[in-house]
Automatic annotation (TrEMBL):
It comes from Salinicola corii. It holds the Pfam family SBP_bac_8. GO terms for cellular component: outer membrane-bounded periplasmic space. InterPro entries: SBP. Keywords: Signal. The keyword Cell membrane does not apply. PANTHER family: PHOSPHOGLYCERATE TRANSPORT REGULATORY PROTEIN PGTC, THIAMINE-BINDING PERIPLASMIC PROTEIN-RELATED. This is ABC transporter substrate-binding protein. The keyword Signal applies. SUPFAM superfamilies: Periplasmic binding protein-like II (SSF53850).
Length: 351
């Protein structure tokens, strides 16, 4: 049974109306947030926080996952709050002493599976998806599972040559994490990577770049996109279809923490507490596609509603010590060497 997520215009309108509404607050205390999370997506949350805390000057800096990690490690200019989808890097920052515990009721009550040491908190529940152009269905059956995708790349290689896109595990921390997780959940992960290589896959650093390429026709098929971005994009681009895989779907969580050396710790703690609060999560569930973690929140975008829609094949990436192995330099180098090898393994021999 095909399970595709369909979305109305309500979310899009709320995003458009919210955009630019908060701006940068002018107050008595500054709050510096280094984030790998598009401001357009999270704007309703920022606007609500700014409205409730008008004396806090909100400085939100949207960057790539690896750049956020570098900024968090800069001793000369530490941020107050760090947010990223590169879950292993966030956990490693905490393990290296860069995070401070959050002493707040919201932190104590947060589910154990979505936090680490009361320091780092997974506050979203975002499915990882495939996306394709509508015209692809005129030439081949659209993929619903990872096996379907492998079959398409094998049987329709000439059609798909140069028209497939995914994350670069070198340029993107979240992309690297997702491919590592694929290798955990299916023995055919490396076959899939080899088949993408044979189809001359393009590798991008962000989901946004993948979506732009799908819409302008450069790509027909995208793999391992962040569902939160893809769902918003599909609302205004009806030629793009978002598919949650029916065999298994990884779920990524944005992770947030208060920096150990936060120059404005009170404002930082207030912001992270707001992200975890019922109020903050209600905004996530109703006005963003980031999906609320809390089970006492009702809205179109909650973890429970996603489970009800998609079924029992959602696999949240666990927030535990196993993530630390992914950022081990030797392991990462070994993974990337195999990645390079597999991308070329099905290339025809040169004369």
């Amino acid at each position: 049974m095909t399970r595709r997520l369909h979305f109305g215009l309500g979310l899009l309108l709320s995003l458009c109306l919210g955009a630019g509404s908060s701006g940068t607050a002018r107050g008595d205390e500054r709050l510096i947030i280094e984030a790998a999370l598009d401001r357009q997506i999270v704007e309703p949350v920022l606007a609500a926080f700014a409205a409730e805390n008008p004396r806090i000057d909100l400085d939100y800096r949207d960057r790539s996952t690896l750049e956020v990690d570098r900024r968090a490690r800069d001793p000369e200019s530490p941020p107050d709050v760090v947010i990223s989808s590169a879950m292993p890097w966030q956990l490693a920052l905490s393990n290296d002493g860069m995070a401070q515990p959050l002493d707040a009721p919201e932190a104590d009550q947060w589910p154990a599976w979505a936090k680490w040491r009361n320091e780092v908190f997974g506050f979203t529940f975002e499915p990882v998806v495939m996306a394709y152009r509508l015209e692809l269905a005129s030439h081949m059956p659209p993929p619903e599972t990872h096996r379907d995708l492998l079959d398409l790349l094998t049987r329709y290689r000439q059609w798909l040559d140069g028209r497939v896109v995914s994350y670069s595990p070198r340029k993107s921390g979240v992309g690297y994490t997702l491919f590592q997780q694929d290798a955990r959940y299916t023995p055919r992960a490396w076959d899939l990577i080899a088949a993408m290589g044979a189809a001359n896959v393009d590798l991008e650093a962000t989901t946004q770049r993948m979506l732009e390429g799908l819409s302008d026709g450069r790509y027909w098929l995208g793999y391992n996109l962040l569902g939160s971005y893809a769902m918003v994009w599909a609302q205004t681009h009806p030629d793009i279809i978002v598919q949650v895989p029916n065999d298994y779907s990884l779920v990524m969580m944005r992770m947030a923490f208060v920096h150990r050396d936060a120059p404005h710790p009170a404002a930082a703690k207030r912001f992270v507490s707001f992200l975890l609060s019922q109020r903050g999560q209600h905004i996530l569930a109703g006005q963003t596609p980031l999906f609320s973690v809390r089970d006492d929140v009702v809205g179109p975008y909650t973890a429970q509603r996603l489970r009800d829609q998609v079924g029992d094949h959602l696999y949240p990436i666990p927030i535990n010590a196993t993530l630390l192995a992914f950022v081990d330099p030797l392991r990462r180098q070994a993974f990337l060497r195999r990645w390079d090898r597999e991308l070329q393994i099905l290339e025809p021999p040169k004369p």
